Amino acid sequence: MKKAFTISALALALAACSQTSNNNTQASATNTLAPLDKLAVSPNDQRGYRTLKLENNIEVILVSDPTTEKSAAALNVGVGLLQDPMTQQGMAHYLEHLLFLGTDKYPETNQYKEFLTENGGVSNASTWLTYTNYMFKVNNDAYDEALDRFSDFFKSPKLYPEYTEKEINAVNAEWSMRREMDFFGQFKLSRDMMGEHPANRFLIGNLETLGDKENSNLHKETVEFYNKYYSANIMKVALISNASLDEMEKLAKKHFSPIKDKGIEKPQVKQEINFAELGGKKIYYKPNQDLKQLKLDFTIKNNQDQFKFKPNAFVSYLLGSEMPGTPAQQLKALGWISSLNAGGTPNHYGNYGEMSITLNLTDLGMQNRDEIVAIIMQYIDLVKEKGVDEKYYKEIKTSLDNEFRFLQKVDEFSYAAQLVNSMQDYPLNYSINAPYYFGQFNAKAVDDVLSQLTPDTLRIWYTSKNEKVDQKQHFYAGEYRIEDIAESEIATWKKPTQVALTLPKVNRLLPENFDLKTAGMKQSTAELKVEKDGVKVWHYPSQLFAEQPKGILKIDLNAGEANADIETQVSLALWSDLYNLQQSLLQAEASVAGISTRATTSNGMSLLLNGFTDKQNLLLSEMLSDLIPEVTETNFAQAKDRLIRGINNAQKQFTVRQLFPALQNLTEANNFEDDALIAAAQKLDVATFKARLEKLVKANQPRVFAFGNYNQGDLENVAEVISKTLGSNHTQTSFAKTKTIAPLPQQVLSYQKDTAAADNGLLDIHVHRKAGFKQKAIANVLAKHFSHEAFNQLRTEEQLAYAVGAFYYPVDDYASIGLYIQSPVMDLVQAQKRFDDFKVEYKAKLDALTPEQFAAIKQGVLVGLTQAPKNMYEEVSPIFSDWYKENWNYDSKQQMITEVQNVKLSDIKQFYNETLANPKASRINVQLRGANYQDKPFAEIKGQTKITDIAELSGKVSYQL
Ligand SMILES: [Zn+2]
């Protein structure tokens, strides 16, 4: 959802930390609302809740959900990077790694992960500035035992000194993988500028910062850090399970009460920032990716204790508005920017936070950066003067209330992690509703934030490939130069600009009617409900969430065979960019009203509406009335520039993130290499582009899938609006879906390509010769065990890479299984050799698998497949892919479940022999050679068909029907 001010999962993960500020001047605005006396829960949430404080002062939230198939737990310790010793930067993160390796009761390093694998579980952990968070989920019947293992990490971890080297290498590999990410580089530089403030530390750590130094022994300090900070009274626990609240309370006490309460004071940073040093700066930053960005970044005091008054949300709502007269709208109209986003994070640096406005610029915008800064600063003055108005409070409050009222479940794993983060940040009873609760309009709280948005707290980031720089970052790839903002420059911000700024007008799309339209509708599968002038509308009423007045509407104008053509593909990409840009006012207004909208391309033009159904009809007719965006030479050139930079930037992503898209491109028909797409984009002119769009609107097959709260009238209306948009001279084309490769025996497709990222990437899959759910089910079960063994051997034992593992991959109707790695240390020949050897070594592990272990793994897969969907999105996903594949029985999920039930131990052994251990199996191999390895060869595979251009595949492979 774009431009919404509620806290997204990511923002929550990033924001989650820290204590309330110690600053007394801020406390005056609080306490005018009576505190909650019990945990606030969404009226839509039927689960049982209980809060506890154990004898050792751990706060706990219990969530009892009789429908859940998996139980989850999270534990958050209120300590993080801000407490790292200067001599061992990255230690909080390093400890997070070391902690998992065995305890007094369960001393083996691999026992925990093994137990989870055998019981359908997963685990993870993360470290941020003010917290370290640990979580897992597992089958319900293994919960008690899993909790016993999990909680032991916080009672008696082994912290084996002999694993020091191995884990430093793991941390170093993690850093090396993120080294070129501009987000991490810029965040580090922004903290480096904070002088003595502890936020200046290096979050991830590497071989240089972690390690023994004179007077500083890593292991000794890690043990001291654990002993000092891992105290029950700064821990928060969340448990979710199908057990009753009474049973869960017993579990909580049994496992978490023995954790030692050291009675420590919650670590808090009190150090003041010297704004004379930090503020009033311009940073010229040369990024790794080809960005054209401007960011106004204000450092503000942590005001998390005022969450009931949402001052940051209020301010960023006004700053980021897309309504007529606001900077976002005006700058887009000038063709200077493609996006403007405003946001506030109160604890970005612990006791300080950030309020920022980030703009993506066009080349025209790049030439007018100073003017843009002046416009934003003048708009901030306007907000200070006239914007603190109760009408915006009402609008934001309505939107947040609606969202909270119909809040949907997320999976247990994320929910547990989310709850404990929130418990560190807010009083216990607000742990769920804090992001949505807007108790009162409080002008003073808003004014407090606005008063801090001045040149003294401001840092302006000019980010592009062309910046003049004079310094290199030490731990990251970015280069930069810092300058003061001159007084004379500040004076120019007062001068008149070429735009007339106004504050946003009120929203028209807020839902008023929450009528439920599908109650009593007897229909248990998707059905074709309307067929009018060639527009077909299918409808599937939610079986599980009929109490939600929401729906998902997907409109596809399927382009049929035209889609095979590169010019069509480029035109569609440019269309969705320009369309979304020109619709941004409408999209932002809809988003505030709880409806997300987006144009995408899936074998043609495609529109998606998702959220409250009340105003969707109005919205859709407005969206369709401008289906072909206005195109000029200027905005067309700008869209091409974004497209080309986007393609080039994708090549700079972590290699591991490029591997899977490359695999998909290779297995699906009608794909092209990046250079071919770029050349086609460069060649395209406005006239051809317009003609192409008109043709796409004129000839296509319109198909609509409606899921959720719609009645027959709504569906007919949708068909009507679409048919009117397409007009009377519309031609129906035949429906085309993406074709996928069919495996040929002995065929080894090896895609070999250089990439701009530093590390090598290798991915290698073996495809089974028979299609169908039986083989897919077997592969699914086998992959669970295979990937566990691969991770254990290649990552934990050998530390070959941070990103290494195994996976199951459906090549449409065929099953495959394989390995992937992003390696900073091995060349491709070495990596391929290690994979080939591991495939042989694994045989012995598979032979050693006992029937009991096999049964547990299979059960884990089954539980994952049969568990009830948590929300509307999970409910519709399998139905939706059946719809796209034209499987009118909508039974793929059920077929998979039935086949998994039938899988035997001998089946997975046979499957293994027919794929990974079979030299004649069909294989797909992807080799991306990193920039650091240009002088090393690619791996040659016996009998390979080498591919360097995907477009040349067509004659060499056959496709599934
Ligand atoms: Zn890590």
UniProtKB/TrEMBL annotation:
Keyword Chaperone: no
InterPro entries (UniProt xref): Metalloenz_LuxS/M16, Pept_M16_N, Pept_M16_Zn_BS, Peptidase_M16, Peptidase_M16_C, Peptidase_M16_M, PqqF-like_C_4
Peptidase M16 middle/third domain ranges (all copies): 404-679
Keywords: Hydrolase, Metal-binding, Metalloprotease, Protease, Signal, Zinc
Gene Ontology CC entries for this record: cytoplasm
Superkingdom per UniProt: Bacteria
Domain Peptidase M16 C-terminal: 224-400
Cofactor(s) needed: Zn(2+)
Domain Peptidase M16 N-terminal: 60-194
One MF annotation (Gene Ontology) recorded for this entry: metal ion binding
E.C. numbers: 3.4.24.55
Residue stretches making up the Coenzyme PQQ synthesis protein F-like C-terminal lobe domain: 782-877
Similarity section: Belongs to the peptidase M16 family.
Protein's name according to its UniProt entry: Protease 3
Naturally occurring in which organism (per UniProt): Pseudoalteromonas phenolica
Taxonomic lineage: Bacteria, Pseudomonadati, Pseudomonadota, Gammaproteobacteria, Alteromonadales
